Amino acid sequence: MSDFDAIGKQFVEFYYQTFDSDRSGLASLYRDVSMMTWEGSPFRGSENILEKIVSLPFQRVAHKITTIDVQPSLPNVKAAVIVVTGQLLVDEETKPQQYTQMFQLVEDNGYFIYNDVFRLNYA
């Protein structure tokens, strides 16, 4: 399981650093079979997912990760489920928003995001 923990933590670090600095840089992580649900809205395929991510209505964002949980997910394929909780600040906001994001990574000449689910957590 430690291999998956290391893969998960490296992935999360890369994903959020890239998201926060240049969202278009996430394109290589998605494939045509990838699926994303963003706040209840589904998107399929790398082009549609990237279009959604880069069109989000803010200029600056900063993620602060609180927890990362990683588990292997498929018996005959190298794959992992990653659940991330944290806080994010957008543009000039001073009060962080809580979020949860789940990824399923699948290995195919390197890992790619097969599933991505994002939700803000409202108290």
Report the biggest beta sheet as strand number plus sense, adding barrel if it closes: 6 strands, mixed
Q: Outline, from the CA principal axes?
A: globular
* Distance between the ends: 33 Å
Number of strands: 6
Taken as a percent bin, the fraction of beta residues is over 45%
Averaged pLDDT: 94
Q: What does the radius of gyration come to?
A: 14 Å
Low-confidence stretches: none
Structural class, judged by helices and strands?
A: alpha+beta
Helix segment tally: 2
Helix-strand string? HEEHEEEE
Helix share bin: 10-25%
Strand order of the largest sheet: 2-1-6-5-4-3
What would your notes on this structure say?
The protein has 123 residues and is of the alpha+beta class. It contains two helices and six strands, in the order αββαββββ. Strands 2-1-6-5-4-3 form a six-stranded mixed beta sheet, covered by helices on one side.
Brief account:
The mean pLDDT is 94.
Secondary structure elements and their pairing?
Layout: H1 2-21, E1 30-38, E2 41-44, H2 46-54, E3 61-72, E4 79-90, E5 97-107, E6 111-121
What attributes does this structure have?
123 residues; alpha+beta; six-stranded mixed β-sheet
